[in-house]
Write a structure and sequence with these properties.
This protein is of the alpha+beta class. Helices cover 25% and strands 36% of the residues. It contains one helix and ten strands; from the N terminus they run H-E-E-E-E-E-E-E-E-E-E. The strands form three sheets. A four-stranded antiparallel sheet has the order 1-2-8-6, with no helix packed on it. The model has no long low-confidence stretch (mean pLDDT 84).
């Protein structure tokens, strides 16, 4: 009778070990599939990383309505077609304002610099954000948050902050 008890006791740890290994393998597979689906869902197969830098534009900010505010330069990313780019600014945490790209229809304009003969915003190219008929920086020194969006994809590409003085 003692032999039977010993065999029962010996079988139980073996079964427990097999079950633990099986559960671990199944859990690892589930986690792998879940992580892979998250990675695919976040990139949509078109991972694009953009970086833009901002700096004060030349010239002093006055109480006029045509001051150069900040310069934004693309430092990383693929070519962006100007037709699908939206640039918004928020001055001193105010409401965002969309800047126009050459048609003078907004409160601020984008004046392109760098390679200006094409339809793309490329690495090294940039824009000077200029007031257009409204004094956006009324205090003489303003913190300007710039948001650059790909309107075709509906995604914010980057946000940068610069001080206009």
């Amino acid at each position: 009778m003692q032999n039977e008890n010993r065999n029962d006791e010996a079988v139980s740890p073996v079964i427990a070990t097999i079950l633990m290994v099986a559960i671990t393998v199944v859990l690892a597979g589930v986690l792998y599939v879940w992580a892979a689906s998250l990675a695919e869902g976040n990139t949509d197969g078109n991972l694009a990383l953009y970086a833009f830098g901002g700096e004060d534009a030349t010239g002093a900010v006055t109480d006029g309505t045509g001051d150069d505010l900040v310069r934004i330069t693309m430092s990383q990313g693929g070519d962006l077609n100007w037709a699908s780019v939206s640039v918004k600014i928020s001055v001193d945490n105010g409401a965002p304002v969309t800047c126009s790209n050459g048609d003078a229809s907004g409160n601020c304009d984008l004046i392109e610099f760098g390679t200006t003969g094409d339809q793309f915003w490329s690495v090294g190219d940039g824009v000077t954000i200029v007031e257009s008929g409204q004094d956006l920086c009324t205090s003489g020194t303003c913190v300007i948050k710039v948001t650059i969006t790909d309107t075709r994809e509906g995604k914010t590409l980057d946000e940068t902050t610069a001080i206009a003085e």
